[in-house]
Write a structure and sequence with these properties.
By secondary structure, the protein is mainly alpha-helical. The protein has one domain. Strands 1-3-2 form a three-stranded mixed sheet, with helices on one face. Helix 1 crosses helix 3 and helix 1 packs across helix 8. The longest helix has 24 residues. The radius of gyration is 18 Å and the shape is globular. The two termini are 19 Å apart.
């Protein structure tokens, strides 16, 4: 069942990424909303994709079909939160409901990869999988360095496992991606004293909570609309 709490569950991953992208790249991706697709699925995800970013060049006919499928589901399940109006060209990421049962690092990687496509379009660079991989790995690296992942009990081995599960895809990337992955894996192997991590996480939690509060006030999460 998809509720407002379902959207709150992924909110933390989106809030941090939006703020980091604004700060580091001067790019605002807040116009891109995440729509959680119900278990019955819609055409965009029937091939097994856990998520898809609706691009600006997506055929309007397909978008209309996906929106109608979601609307039909919403009419039959009125107790669920199905904001089907969010399914728009260049402004939406469709996320499979089953991703909510995935690990934290899997959720982050899936969501950040799709935002990578939105980032490519916003920057007007080639919107390829290779460039989306770069954004995905950049976000994971920054989140690890800033203690964001550790704050949610994601361990270095968890990130290593995630990277390993994605390696077949990453192998199709660029030399730049290979360099970024090598750096990230080396970074994961650096031990941090427990007391230093605890002290940093207390400081980061205060700053992060303020970001979430401001984000809520801006009504940028899908179900607020």
């Amino acid at each position: 069942m998809i509720t407002k709490n379902s959207y709150r569950q992924i909110q933390r991953h989106i809030v941090w990424m939006l703020n980091h992208t604004r700060k580091e790249f001067s790019i605002d991706l807040a116009h891109v909303k995440v729509f959680i697709s119900p278990k019955s699925g819609i055409g965009a995800l029937l091939q097994g994709n856990p998520a898809i970013c609706i691009r600006y060049n997506q055929m309007q006919h397909a978008i209309n079909v996906w929106r109608k499928n979601a609307q039909d589901y919403a009419n039959e399940h009125q107790s669920e939160c199905i904001p089907h109006h969010l399914i728009e060209k260049g402004k939406c990421i469709i996320l499979a409901q089953h991703v909510l049962q995935s690990t934290c690092i899997d959720q982050c990687g899936i969501i950040w990869h799709e935002y990578g496509h939105a980032y490519n379009e916003t920057r007007q660079i080639k919107n390829t999988e290779a460039n989306a991989y770069l954004f995905e790995v950049d976000m994971i690296t920054a989140a690890w360095r800033q203690g964001v992942l550790q704050m949610y009990d994601v361990m270095a081995k968890d990130v290593h496992n995630y990277l390993g599960s994605r390696q077949n895809y990453f192998d199709n990337g660029t030399n730049e991606l290979a360099d970024k992955l090598a750096y990230l894996r080396a970074l994961l192997d650096i031990e941090v004293e427990p007391f230093q991590r605890e002290r940093f996480n207390r400081y980061f939690w205060c700053a992060y909570s303020r970001q979430v509060s401001l984000h809520n006030q801006e009504n940028t999460i899908a179900w607020h609309k």
